[in-house]
Design goal:
This protein is mainly α. It contains two helices and no strands. Helix 1 packs antiparallel against helix 2.
Amino acid sequence: MSTVIENLLSRKQKLVEQLEKAPSVEDRDRIEHQLEQINTALDFLDRPGSKDAK
């Protein structure tokens, strides 16, 4: 499970970097949408009762 979380966090970091350089509103919207999806996945994986919960 931690590999999935690590991959999501890595992807999130890359998207944040892209967001800072995004030339158009459409690009920013697309990136922000992807960030929302990643945050949702991370929230789901971090819920109490998940297999990787502490």
